[in-house]
């Protein structure tokens, strides 16, 4: 379970950080704290990731970039983006563990990217 948690943190972090490489300010205005405090908004992003609901432009970019981000271990990501995404992913993992589990299984059914999660996040808990 811990490794699935780490995997999804990496998954979300890498995808968001790489969704628009070179566009440093693209996600600077996203208020992760506000999203985490707003259940409707947060679950909207979760449903987007799981193909269960509509996506915002940011959600769509995030979802579309997950496979590439996992493959290249976020080689083009900015540190600020990585930190923002770690914060957001931790929010989902800790507040909505069942949804987190569903996202992990959705994007890594073969469990081949779990090690990336351990490398990226270490052994963090809620």
UniProtKB/TrEMBL annotation:
<dbReference type="InterPro" id="IPR036682">
    <property type="entry name" value="OS_D_A10/PebIII_sf"/>
</dbReference>
<keyword id="KW-0732">Signal</keyword>
<dbReference type="Pfam" id="PF03392">
    <property type="entry name" value="OS-D"/>
</dbReference>
<feature type="signal peptide">
    <location>
        <begin position="1"/>
        <end position="19"/>
    </location>
</feature>
<dbReference type="InterPro" id="IPR005055">
    <property type="entry name" value="A10/PebIII"/>
</dbReference>
<protein>
    <submittedName>
        <fullName>Chemosensory protein 17</fullName>
    </submittedName>
</protein>
